[in-house]
Design brief:
Elements (H helix, E strand, L loop, with lengths): L1 H24 L21 H16 L10 H4 L13 H4 L4 H4 L20 H5 L6 E3 L10 E3 L10 H4 L4 H6 L2 H4 L4 H5 L2 E4 L8 E4 L9 H5 L2 E8 L4 E8 L14 E9 L23 E5 L18 E6 L8 E9 L11 E8 L2
Parallel strand pairs: 1-2
Antiparallel strand pairs: 3-4, 5-6, 6-9, 7-8, 7-10, 10-11
């Protein structure tokens, strides 16, 4: 019995040592891996594998919508993926490494079975089928075996997921594409890695992947211009998509961008529309409104997105004589029936009518 106990303890010790070595090498399976699931990318166990050398990159990614692509409540809402009961949503929200399905026009993402809570993680973009990771620069040497793949820094990398709602095609038709400005130029601005980051200090690309949900990022691509013609008492507000390399709002069909113009009398009371209008629930206020959205095909409603480089106006003519002031407001909404006061972000300009 004593010999068996010693043998058992020795076996446990060997197993523990083996697991410790695997963890140090970054090859131990993550806790949420499905039983028997293969790990995407030989020897990698998701973002935590990258932490020792790329802590700043991982921290940026953790703030991104890529990191929340599987866990975000909006994504899981009944009118979206319905907790991913709509399995056609899975390939782009828990994508297998893009180099497995190919990076070219008309490629489609593949669904992975493990680590789904990681969403679109480091491996989704960097892991290579034969081992190692794709790098956007050559001549690198590291334990993860970086291999120069120029496609990593090209717009085609984003196609498989982001053209499911035509975003890539919108970009191709935009002034940005004609000027050679691609996805990374806007969504992955340059940053400098400091401290203990691999290769620091050196320039890199932010992995926060800022998009429409970020107010400052979105407003950098929009110009809102109010005007008043006193002779004709015409109020005009022009919205221009000056910067984005695609339509606004893009991708999710649930997103809506509302431009609302409200006139006020001398007492500060808002004036209603001049004519009776039927407006969507939650979007009734305002003297005049215009919505930008790519609606669900089943509704039969027209696509009112604002293309890159294009302008759209809201006009009130003539403004009632009692109108003395106006506001022009933008509301970005994650769902189309969200009231203005509950918009994800908003921006407002005030101007006098004189």
């Amino acid at each position: 019995m004593k010999a068996r106990a010693v043998a058992g303890i020795s076996l446990l010790a060997l197993l523990a040592a083996g697991l410790l070595l695997l963890q140090r090498a970054g090859t131990a399976p993550p806790a949420d891996a499905a039983p028997g699931a293969r790990l995407s990318g030989t020897g990698f166990a998701g973002p935590r594998t990258c932490l020792p050398c790329h802590a700043q990159v991982v921290a940026e990614w953790e703030q991104s919508m890529h990191a929340a692509s599987f866990t975000d409540p909006q994504v899981r809402a009944p009118d979206q993926s319905d907790n991913f009961q709509k399995q056609e949503c899975l390939p782009c929200h828990v994508s297998a490494p893009i180099f497995e399905h190919g990076i070219e026009t008309n490629s489609r993402a593949l669904t992975r079975t493990e680590r789904r809570s990681d969403g679109i993680d480091c491996l989704a973009c960097h892991a290579l089928p034969g081992g190692g990771v794709a790098a956007s620069r050559g001549g690198l040497s590291a334990p993860c075996n970086p291999i120069f793949r120029p496609e990593l820094a090209q717009h085609s990398q984003c196609y498989a997921c982001h053209n499911q709602h035509n975003t890539h095609d919108e970009w191709l038709a935009s002034p940005a594409a004609a000027q050679g400005l691609d996805c990374a130029g806007c969504h992955m601005p340059r940053v400098t890695r400091e401290g203990t980051e691999a290769g620091a200090p050196r320039a890199g690309f932010s992995h926060r992947f800022l998009g429409g949900r970020d107010r400052d990022h979105a407003l950098a691509g929009l110009r809102l211009e109010p005007a008043f013609d006193a002779a004709t008492r015409t109020v005009t507000v022009t919205l221009t998509n000056t910067f984005a390399g695609h339509n606004l709002p893009t991708d999710s069909r649930n997103r809506a961008l509302d431009l609302v113009v409200t006139l006020y009398d001398a007492r500060g009371q808002p004036l209603p529309p001049a004519t009776a209008e039927t407006r969507e629930p939650g979007c009734e206020p305002g003297t005049a409104r215009r919505r930008f959205r790519n609606p669900y095909r089943s509704t039969g409603d027209p696509n009112t997105q604002l293309p890159a480089g294009a302008s759209a106006t809201v006009e009130i003519a003539p403004a009632p004589p009692e109108a003395t002031r106006a506001t022009a407001a933008l509301y970005y909404k994650l769902t189309p029936f969200t009231p203005d006061a509950e918009a994800h972000w908003s921006e407002q300009l005030d101007f006098e009518l004189r």
